[in-house]
Specification:
Layout lengths: L31 H4 L1 E13 L4 E12 L3 E7 L5 E7 L2 E7 L4 E10 L2 E11 L12 E6 L5 E6 L23 E8 L3 E3 L3 E7 L3 E8 L11 E3 L1 E9 L5 E9 L6 H19 L9 E5 L4 E2 L5 E3 L6 E3 L2 E3 L1 H8 L16 H19 L1 H14 L14 H4 L6 H14 L1 H13 L11 H12 L4 H8 L5 E7 L4 E6 L7 E7 L2 E7 L4 E4 L5 E2 L7 E5 L1
Parallel strand pairs: 1-10, 16-17, 17-19, 22-28
Antiparallel strand pairs: 1-2, 2-7, 3-6, 4-5, 4-7, 5-6, 8-9, 10-13, 11-14, 12-13, 15-16, 18-19, 20-21, 22-23, 23-26, 24-25, 24-27
Helix pairs in contact: 2-3, 2-4, 3-4, 4-5, 4-7, 5-7, 7-8, 8-9
Length: 534
């Protein structure tokens, strides 16, 4: 999600009906009881009552246990009331505590192997006071007074409304089913493919199903008085993919053009990142009462059709950025929130590539220079391992993360960089069922470029340092250029001397430049740097 200035709001939940525990965090150190669990599938079946602002139903979790265990531990916000838990059809005792842990206890032990856990629960889910920057339900209405409901939970995790293993390293390998029952006349927009809508006297149940792995914060739905606007997209691989826009009925006339704008975005991103990742399901967006979020195959969109012009064509920054997450976050997924820059930084780099494609290299370079100016450098982008979503999140994972990819492009050259970037987005080792870390990304680029790039990755991602370049005058027209804080990898550097660009190798070994005017290192702005003159 494009949340550069976002800060999680911390509050204390007094009563579940009155306030939501905004100090919820996703990820962090994996609990030992959950480390032996491999989530295979979720089934979420809920009745949503917009008038009472309640949910009621059950979630089934299919999982594999690697070892015998006396307990199964799931994450679920304590404000919801659990009434019953069953394991392989047998009722089991449980505790559900204020620290949002649901612990199901075996009479003896749960044997290693397949387990089906069913949790019956309900109540008033927490409300997102400032969606999408904080998580929970948004209970809203459209201009005609129809209920309009959305869920956001990137920072807090899916536990805000269903029991799950809330860690980015474990997505359900076999996908998920969502059966959401709403008042008749309303529509439910969800992930994957719509299998069936079952009409009752006063309600309708919408059954959405995805067979792909999916992060728990993308396993959400939106409810509204929607009109479905459709279009067919032919991917770069020739696959016919349905495009579906669940747009409020009052904005239905805007839907066809909005899908045209989205199609242009998809064509550009496919060029750089490969075929749209969910070609067997759909390209989907749903209009929401909040700004937006990257929800797999059903991105949330709430930018109110505010187009600008890029290359003379209508452009929606929110639409493009969130759609880029279909590759970076949804397909290529961090195994730990510590590596959140991979999804946010590379996705933001993709935003700049869209500018490059429609307006040229200079427009792209201007975007990169803005990122350099806006970099905070208060703390590293990668702060270790087992970091939770709150600690991992800060503005530099976006702009500085994108700028790092720009630097990497310059260091190894386009002929290596772009094919390697596409390999990261398409190779099975880094996608779908496999999650990634910063080391995985570094090792891939190092191998493809036949260069040890770890020092560069460590410098820009694991420290808040800028590259320090010293330009020292040693004669009437003579200067030497060195770096004072990076000597682990020789770096290419363009220098303007007497108005002419020349390329040198930057290291702590001085490079002499003859120039009647003061040389200008890195004039285009490939590095986040500090230049000193003596």
């Amino acid at each position: 999600m494009f949340r550069i200035m976002k800060k999680f709001l911390l509050a204390v939940a007094c009563l579940p009906a009155l306030a939501f525990a905004q100090n919820l965090r996703s990820g962090g150190a994996l609990k030992p009881e959950q480390a032996i669990m491999d989530i295979r599938h979720y089934t979420i079946a809920l009745t949503v009552n917009p008038e009472e602002k309640t949910i009621q139903g059950y979630t089934e979790i299919d999982l594999n246990l690697a070892a015998n265990t006396p307990v199964v531990v799931l994450d679920l916000w304590h404000g919801l009331t659990v009434t019953q838990t069953l394991v392989n059809g047998k009722k089991e005792n449980f505790t559900h505590t204020q620290n949002d842990l649901l612990t199901i206890t075996a009479s003896k032990f749960f044997a290693a192997g397949k387990l089906k856990v069913k949790v019956m629960y309900g109540g008033k889910p927490g409300v997102a006071d400032r969606a999408p920057w904080d998580g929970g339900f948004t209970w809203s209405t459209d201009s005609k007074g129809n209920p309009w409901v959305a869920i956001t939970c990137q920072g807090e995790g899916g536990k805000v409304f269903f029991p799950c293993k809330d860690h980015p390293s474990d997505e359900p390998n076999e996908g998920a089913d969502m059966l959401i029952t709403v008042p008749k006349g309303l529509s439910v927009a969800g992930p994957g493919l719509l299998k069936k809508v079952t009409q009752e006297k006063s309600t309708a149940t919408w059954h959405w199903k995805t067979n792909y792995p999916i992060s728990n914060y993308c396993l959400v739905f939106n409810i509204g008085n929607y009109t479905k606007v459709t279009r067919t997209y032919t991917s770069v691989a020739g696959t016919k993919i349905p495009m579906e826009f669940y747009v409020l009925e009052e904005h239905a006339d805007k839907g066809p053009h909005h899908l045209e704008v989205l199609e242009k975005t998809c064509r550009v991103l496919e060029k750089y990142f490969g075929e749209y990742p969910w070609a067997k399901e759909k390209i989907g967006i749903a209009e929401t009462p909040h700004l937006g979020m990257e929800h797999q195959t059903m991105n949330a969109y709430g930018n109110q059709f505010k187009y600008t012009k890029v290359g003379g064509e209508d452009f929606d920054w929110l639409l493009t950025h969130e759609f880029g997450h279909e590759w970076w976050a949804n397909k290529v997924t961090n195994s730990d929130w510590a590596h959140m820059w991979i999804q946010e930084g590379i996705c933001s780099f993709g935003d700049a590539l869209y500018l490059r494609e429609l307006e040229g290299e200079e427009a792209y370079q201007r975007a990169m220079r803005r990122n350099a100016v806006n970099a905070q450098n208060k703390k590293p982008i990668v702060q270790g391992e087992s970091v939770d979503s709150d600690d991992a999140y800060h503005s530099d994972i976006y702009g500085k993360g994108a700028l790092f990819m720009h630097t990497l492009r310059y260091v190894i050259g386009d002929s290596l960089f772009f094919p390697t970037l596409k390999k990261l987005a398409t190779d099975a080792r880094y996608t779908y069922h496999n999650s990634v870390t910063t080391d995985d990304v570094e090792q891939l680029f190092s191998a493809q470029s036949k260069t040890n790039l770890k020092p560069l990755f460590d410098f820009y991602l694991r420290t808040p340092n800028k590259l320090e370049i010293l330009v020292k005058r040693t004669g009437e027209t003579r200067y030497v250029i060195t770096t004072t804080n990076f000597d682990d990898l020789p770096l290419p550097l363009e220098v303007i001397a007497d108005g002419v660009a020349t390329r040198i190798t930057l290291s702590k070994t001085p490079v002499t430049i003859e120039s009647k005017t003061q040389p200008i290192p890195d004039p285009v702005g490939y590095y986040l740097k500090r230049v000193a003159y003596e």
